[in-house]
Amino acid sequence: ARAFELLIIPFVSHARLLQVTNAIVSKIMKAFAPKSFTSLIERVSDVRNTSWIGSDFNLGYFTSCQINLASPSDRDSTIGLEKDLGSAGLPHVDAGDHLHNLTAMFAFGDLEGFHPGHFVVCELGVAACLDNYHPIYFNARRRHGATPARPEHPDTVIQPHHVRATCIWYPNRAIIERSA
What we know:
Elements: H1 2-8, H2 14-32, H3 35-48, E1 64-70, H4 82-85, E2 103-109, E3 114-115, E4 118-121, E5 126-129, E6 136-138, E7 144-146, E8 150-151, E9 164-170, H5 173-176
Antiparallel strand pairs: 1-9, 2-6, 2-9, 3-8, 4-5, 4-7
């Protein structure tokens, strides 16, 4: 609980954290995704009356959010994120996500002196570093996973405040298709 409080202090509140992260990932989606893609999502959102959550910049791109917290693993450990996240820490497919939309993952944490870990899209063999405040967009209906943060130096002691949070904005299939 203390580690989570330390992460949230700059954001003032949980609602503000969601508002800020959603504004960032939504603005980037609008600016860099193909216009034909974002326009289609916006039209479907309008037709289906999908709630715009998080911020005024979310024009139907994301319908749900989750926050995952994970502590680093020891430098030489073979244990991955499953110690904190259970099966969600292993490579998986999010079958509840909409097939044609993207998920945005926004990582941050107090990890000075740690390698932040990687996000992996297994089918493509692509890995991206989970640097603070660099959102990653992907189709969560494809097998994906992540590696934990690890100390860069062998003498680093993992403290309770060493936590990586990932704020994951995703397109819930049941909400978009109004089948819930």
